[in-house]
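User: Design a sequence. Structure:
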């Protein structure tokens, strides 16, 4: 019996794997296709198939949930082990704070900031800093971005450097024409600079 013949006689369209079982039952049925389909309808075969389908969905849903929990547990264990070994590796490599010698040191910047408390210096607004940079060094104002912090750097015993993930304060500070600091980028970030005491120089990171 073809699937279309079964659907026409019962009004029920089973899924392919369900029809395989129906077809098997038909081959073992003592009667023709009309009698089989009549028995299927009178025996509430459609309801039974729906019940079996719902049970299968529940079983698969439970299995998927179980697999999801297992995957999450495995992922958490992986992250835990990765963090442990990363910490051990960091310990072995002896990471410590580092500053590129070409840049203004944090100690020098902090010394300038201390002048603010005495009233001889102040934090510049971005507009003030932009005005100073463009007036003194001829930059296009639209191409300059004033920065307020830098990445802290670290170095290990193998002389490899990296950003620590922490930030250091580098807001622009002005005390005098020959004593100030401004960290800025130009050319939409293509060039990194710092202005110090009337001069500019590349900033390295």
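Assistant: Done.
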């Amino acid at each position: 019996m073809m699937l279309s013949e079964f659907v026409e006689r019962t009004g029920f369209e089973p899924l392919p794997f369900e029809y395989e079982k129906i077809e098997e039952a038909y081959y073992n049925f003592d009667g023709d296709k009309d009698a089989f389909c009549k028995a299927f309808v009178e025996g509430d075969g459609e309801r039974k198939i729906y019940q079996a389908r719902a049970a299968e969905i529940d079983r698969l849903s439970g299995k998927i949930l179980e697999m999801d929990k297992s995957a999450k547990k495995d992922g958490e264990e992986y992250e835990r082990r990765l963090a442990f070994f990363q910490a051990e590796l960091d310990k072995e490599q002896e990471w410590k704070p580092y500053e590129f010698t070409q840049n203004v040191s944090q100690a020098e910047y902090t010394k300038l900031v201390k002048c603010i408390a005495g009233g001889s210096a102040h934090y510049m607004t971005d507009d003030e800093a932009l005005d100073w940079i463009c007036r003194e060094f001829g930059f296009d104002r639209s191409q300059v971005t004033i920065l307020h912090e830098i990445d802290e750097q670290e170095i290990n015993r193998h002389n490899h450097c990296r950003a620590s993930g922490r930030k250091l304060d580098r807001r622009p500070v002005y005390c005098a024409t020959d004593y100030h600091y401004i960290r800025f980028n130009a050319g939409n970030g293509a060039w990194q600079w710092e202005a110090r005491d009337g001069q500019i120089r590349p900033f390295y990171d």
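The chain has two domains: 3-43, 97-202. Residues 145 and 189 are 8 Å apart (CA to CA).
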